[in-house]
Amino acid sequence: MKVFTSKTEKRIIGFLSAAGFLFIWKFVSIHIGTDIILPAPETVFLRLLSIMIDSGFWLAVGATVLRTAYGLIISFVLGFAAGIGCGSSSKIDALLSPIISITRTVPVMSIILLAMIWFSTDIVPVFVCVLMIFPILTANVKQGVKGVDRKLVELGVSYRLSRTEVFREITVPSVMPFILGGLRSAIGVGWKVVIAAEVLSQPVRAVGTGLQFSQMNLETAEVMAWTVVAVILSWLSEFLLDLLIKRRKWEPADA
Amino acid sequence: MKVFTSKTEKRIIGFLSAAGFLFIWKFVSIHIGTDIILPAPETVFLRLLSIMIDSGFWLAVGATVLRTAYGLIISFVLGFAAGIGCGSSSKIDALLSPIISITRTVPVMSIILLAMIWFSTDIVPVFVCVLMIFPILTANVKQGVKGVDRKLVELGVSYRLSRTEVFREITVPSVMPFILGGLRSAIGVGWKVVIAAEVLSQPVRAVGTGLQFSQMNLETAEVMAWTVVAVILSWLSEFLLDLLIKRRKWEPADA
Amino acid sequence: MPENNRKASDAETFGIKLDNISFAYPDTAKDPVFRAFSMKMPAAKVSVILGPSGCGKTTLLNLVSGLLEPGSGYIDAAGRSENDKGRISVLFQEPRLLPWRSVRRNIEIVLNKHLGAVNSRKTAEHYLTLVGLGSFMDYYPAQLSGGMRQRAAIARAFAYPADTILMDEPFQALDLGLKINLTELFTKLWVEDRRTSVFVTHDINEAILLGDEIFVLSPGKPAEILEHITNNDPHSGRTLESETSIEIEKRLYRLLG
Amino acid sequence: MPENNRKASDAETFGIKLDNISFAYPDTAKDPVFRAFSMKMPAAKVSVILGPSGCGKTTLLNLVSGLLEPGSGYIDAAGRSENDKGRISVLFQEPRLLPWRSVRRNIEIVLNKHLGAVNSRKTAEHYLTLVGLGSFMDYYPAQLSGGMRQRAAIARAFAYPADTILMDEPFQALDLGLKINLTELFTKLWVEDRRTSVFVTHDINEAILLGDEIFVLSPGKPAEILEHITNNDPHSGRTLESETSIEIEKRLYRLLG
Amino acid sequence: GSQEAAAPAEVNITIAALKGPSGFAAAEMMKDKFQPGYNVNAEYILLGSPLDAVTKMTSGEIDAAFLPVNTAAKLYTKGIGYKLAAVSGVGSLYMLSSDSSVTDWPELKGKTIYLTGKGATPDYLLRYLLIENGLDPEKDVTLNFTSTPPQIVQLLAAGKADTAFIPQPFALMAETNTKAGIVLDPQQELMKIRGTQKPFPFTVFVLSERLIEARPEAAAEIVSALEASINWVVSNPDEASAAIEEIGIMTAVAAKPAIPVSGIQFISAADSRADVEDFLSMLLELDPVSVGGKLPDEGFYFEN
Ligand SMILES: Nc1ncnc2c1ncn2[C@@H]1O[C@H](COP(=O)(O)OP(=O)(O)OP(=O)(O)O)[C@@H](O)[C@H]1O
Ligand SMILES: Nc1ncnc2c1ncn2[C@@H]1O[C@H](COP(=O)(O)OP(=O)(O)OP(=O)(O)O)[C@@H](O)[C@H]1O
Ligand SMILES: [Mg+2]
Ligand SMILES: [Mg+2]
Predict the structure, then answer these.
(1) Element at C38 (helix H, strand E)
(2) Which of A138, A166, B83, D165 could form a disulfide linkage to A82, CB 3.0–4.6 angstroms apart?
(3) How far lies E251's CA from each of A63, A182, E146, E247, E257, in Å?
(4) CA D73 from chain center: how many Å?
(5) pTM listed for this prediction
(6) A78: pLDDT strictly greater than 70
């Protein structure tokens, strides 16, 4: 049975573990001793402030946020559609699964080559992101659809609910947890992939470009600063998603 | 309601869509016209045969398979443990989530150097893989645990089943679909990540290194050949997992 | 989908016919539930089905409603096939309420298409009040007691404008008082527009009070019709004390007791 | 966990006491289910609880079994708290079988710890046969009819070596014949080792045939004890015709009918 | 842009430089957005990687770019029409080691050497030099690859690596930030072995045949502009490094010390041909794949 823990208590624990993490970081950095490998937290923090002053910084962040947003939204739409399709009709499943599993399995490296030919460097990361996320979501949604309570579907059928009604009233609510679960983890991956792709494809304005540039100049502190930015970004995004999830009523979901 | 489709029918459809894919590939390659960007399928196939003759090929494949296997197994164990923990105790959740979300969000680019310092280039891809997969699985399992039917848990409690019994008889079976769903998609990502990391860390023997090498030399056909290898590998792995999933009895899972 | 909600007038044209059907569940195919089974349930009458647990009552209803297809043979019932214009209202053996919807919404959902939003709401609330859930309309199923869920499901089945009503042990898990009220309620509603109804129950009194035709199924597979009793007393004002009733009760006790 | 399965001898030392408790569900806190509610159910006796749907019977059982904690007040029952050595066997209002286990395994699981693998299997099969599921032991819950699932749950509750048995409408969804058999079965088993039992039902006849103490709860919240009837006739050989029975029946009908 | 050579017709071209030292050469051109005239409008872009340049060349998006010499040759032999217009940089690779006992190539025996890009020029060059010095690249040494030179510097700093084969300016960074110092000069070694006069050509400047055919004069202007740009960069490091940061190739701080050591140097196609061919033939011996199977014919060189 779940142990009840108060909000504040959670906060404290969370804070402690974060603090622990910082402490370890500081410790390791002292142990390593040279800034070009692992600078101390405070160094990174100061550097972060200094790069945040630059206007280019905000443009870069904005660009990356946009890319990730596009990537996730596209993946979500595709994944949702494909997942529903594959989950509810084995024909569609048979039809799509080869393509999906190819997209799921083609290494990023190989795709980036083509992507760079087909799209401008600005779009490559979005493309790669979709390629990476969309199969995950599809799998999740498919899983969910297969898990829909047959008894409730029967109910819908006998009461002659239209396909759309069954979909809206029964399928979607049952699948939601799966989708949100998938999306929740997809978001994290999304940021990672977008930034990785940015590092490779080097758009003019991008967090990834920032990372790569500062690494080329051996500015490890700056590399870390950009890293912190990336981390904060995806935390924010996850936080927002969680709000969204909370907003769903229909919580008492048994019986 | 699900439309029933015969195995053979599925096969046919699947075959068709695969054929369609090849056709499009061939068409585009003709349209593009130069091997450097997109060689024709048959060219790639021939090149594949030629690299397969080389003994180094099999060693490389073997090494990559091992890395992915390790990466997935470790992620699975960690993800399972963490997911169960976070799902069943909000204390543990509060404690782990900061660390997990950091691992989930730190860009590969930033972590890979530390990885190289800590591990030999052979292990770096495994490390990166775990970093990428483990949060996904954790999220999935957590989702699943939260979804366990409260009524069944109550049953377990009133009949005084030990924690382990409740876990084995109620939690695990309810969580399984989530885990397998997660694993199913994780495998795909796993291969991608391992290979990507191999491209970056370039172990002596690795599919990623092969990719990178042929890319350096603009041998696109070879790049594609390696890609095909990667795709086949992850298909095999998914196929195996599906067998595993099928083997689970307890199918009629409603009532 | 027809918009007109059929009234007694043309209800006569309907009826339920099972013609020499056979059915077995795929994974227990060795012993079929029905084999060469035939049955006629007249239109505009209440047919009650009695029979030991596991004999095939629910399966029978699912065959009639079209959720299951017979392995062989032929079934005719108004609104059975997607494309005919009739409608069937089903009360399952479990409440089958959508966990993520309030009780009220659960009923509105099945009405919307036929009555439109406003009337759906009115109707839903009307029937919920009839089954005594007037003050629980905004509760979620998980917040209700077993019997209350059952009543919500009953409200849904009654509210749905159908030509045929199939009910699987509707009044189980209800206390005596409620059973009586709801039995009376059903009679009251039924006499208004005599819809073809099938009523699965274990309660002999219910069978007597509600049934025009009483079918008793045999235990063991395949199931057969052990007995078919017709009761021509008018519905309103039936009592358990009338000698028809007492006489039927005796016969049923002999078969089931 | 105690290995000894208590016998009548020391059963006397047990009993269920609810002392001035109050309880409300968090999300419907405005109207509590119980307020300043007290009740004593004697040891080694069968207490039957009757009451309109939604009055709080299931809640009461959950409070006794320890699944729910009272907001205030104090509850004593053998095996209620994790760490005391008694055991409670609960029959929920729904079968609550594990979908991924065969019926047999479903029962073995709760027995294993107390009887060991071999005996668990024997016992499970024994009780399944008693409830008439002898030929369905390897079926999965989804493959059973509603009543069959209910019977599987009954077998589990009876098989579990407990000091106290709580049953929430155990015989609902069962046909008359089965009801009678199972009532007799329960009596037969009960007289062997008179375990403290609480029996929630809607069926007045059951109440009369099984109850030593009959409690009738009031509708509406908070629930109160409307009536408490004691029946000292010996269990074995009780009939509905004895004048005690008839007299009790009258009183109950007046309260519930 | 139009293929026609009709004098009045406008031609729009894109000149691409790479981030990193190879981009230094174009600093002045890019700073002033140099226009060659003859109705040719030049636009300048900065690319992240040679790969990016290659894809844009194959798709004809760019008309001028800086590439490793063997990549240029390979593209030419594969018929992606680009000619070598000049050498913009010569080799500036160095062998670093924290073990000062290494004073000559044979002493690398048993060492683990870190370098970038399996299959890239440094890889081939190192193998060649090792073999020439009687070492077997597979047995006598261990070659560890990473993706970028900075990582190697960091590995040196971490003491994880003790010997590395990296280009400038990273060799310099390593010297200032780690215990490792330059111990061997492959340029000298190669000149000794091959008997050549100049360090081997490393980065070359290529022009699209499309441009050359449409506007030969403009092409010539661009080449001389590059020469001017290179000379400017080499002779005024301060302004140059400022410009380099402004363009976004590198930070001024990192660039200034890099400029003198990074082997930036203009050699016309004509003057470089001999050395280029010599270097390519060396690669050809090592691994035909690296240059596209055969030496490029004289059409490869744009000699105005
Ligand atoms: N989980 C819950 N959350 C909120 N309210 C609840 C919950 N469960 C039950 N209730 C309310 O508590 C009251 C008593 O419920 P309970 O299940 O005890 O009734 P009951 O006597 O068992 O009825 P029945 O005979 O229909 O099972 C009901 O009014 C119900 O609405
Ligand atoms: N999904 C299923 N798969 C396999 N067998 C099934 C399935 N559902 C029911 N059965 C079998 O079919 C027979 C009839 O089941 P059914 O539910 O129709 O009985 P019933 O008359 O409704 O019993 P009850 O009164 O207990 O509800 C039973 O023996 C049961 O084991
Ligand atoms: Mg049934
Ligand atoms: Mg109840």
Answers:
(1) strand C34-41
(2) A138
(3) 22, 41, 23, 10, 11
(4) 23
(5) 0.78
(6) yes
Q: What are the tens digits of pLDDT across the range C107-143? A: 999 998 888 888 999 999 999 998 889 899 999 988 8
- Residue from D34, D57, D92 to probe ligand 1 pocket by mutation (most atoms less than 8 Å from CB): D57
For residues B26 and B32, is the Cβ–Cβ distance under 8 A?
no
pLDDT surpassing 90 at residue B66: yes
| Interval between CA A147 and ligand 2 midpoint (Å) | 22
pLDDT value of position A104 = 77
Cis peptide before D222 (omega within 30 of 0): yes
SS3 at position C238? coil
* Element at A138 (helix H, strand E): helix A124-147
Distance between CA atoms of C233 and C45, rounded to whole angstroms? 12
Residue D184 has a CB neighbour count (10 Å cut-off) of 12
Q: Give the ipTM.
A: 0.74
Q: What is the pLDDT of residue A113?
A: 67
pLDDT digits (tens, 9 = 90+) for D213-254: 999 998 877 888 888 999 888 887 788 888 888 888 888 888
Distance CA D99, CA B176 (A): 13
B148 Cβ partners below 8 Å, 6+ apart? B170, B171, B174, B175
Contact C137, C102 (CB under 8 A): yes
Q: What's the CA gap between D171 and D173, in Å, rounded?
A: 6
Work out whether the CA dihedral E209, E215, E219, E222 comes out positive or negative. Answer: negative
- b/e code E65-94 from CB counts within 10 Å (16+ = b): bbbbbbbbbbbbbeebbbbbbbbbbbbbbb
Assess contact for D18 and D38: CB atoms under 8 A: yes
What's the rounded mean pLDDT across residues C40-63?
90
User: Chain B partners of D149 at a C-beta cutoff of 8 Å?
Assistant: 255
Q: Phi and psi of E84, rounded to 5°?
A: -75, 120
3-state secondary structure of C68: coil
Neighbors of chain B with 3 or more C-beta pairs under 8 Å:
A, D, E
* Residues of chain D with C-beta less than 8 angstroms from the C-beta of B252: 99, 140-143
Return the H-helix or E-strand segment holding B96: helix B90-105
Number of Cβ within a 10 Å radius of residue D253: 12
Is pLDDT at C172 greater than 90 in this prediction? no
Q: So what's the pLDDT on residue A2?
A: 34
The band of A255, judged by pLDDT with boundaries at 50, 70 and 90, is: very low
Residue spans of beta strands (DSSP E) within chain B: none
Read off the tokens for A5. Answer: 């823990």
- Residue E1: pLDDT over 70: no
Evaluate if residue B1 carries a pLDDT over 60.
Answer: no
| pLDDT tens per residue across span C185-222 | 888 888 888 888 999 988 888 889 889 999 999 887 78
> Are E223 and E268 spatial neighbours (Cβ–Cβ below 8 Å)?
yes
Which residue's CA is the closest to the ligand 1 atom numbered 11?
C144
Determine the pLDDT at residue B67.
92
| Rounded CA Rg of chain D | 18
A240 at interface of B, judged by CB pairs closer than 8 A: no
Residue of A194, A235, A183 whose CA lies nearest to B185: A183
Report the distance separating Cα B202 and Cα B178, nearest Å: 34
Which is it for the CA torsion B199, B204, B207, B211, positive or negative? Answer: positive
Q: At what angle do helices B220-247 and A108-118 cross, to 10 degrees?
A: 130
Name all chains with 3 or more CB-CB pairs below 8 Å to chain A. B, C, E
More confident of the two residues E54 and D60:
D60
* Tokens (6 digits) for A184: 């929740």
Which residues of A are less than 8 Å from E49 in CB distance? 200, 202
Q: What is the CB neighbour count within 10 angstroms for residue A152?
A: 20
Q: Which of D79, D112, D149 sits opposite B255 (nearest CB)?
A: D149
What pLDDT band is residue E199 in, cutting at 50, 70 and 90? confident
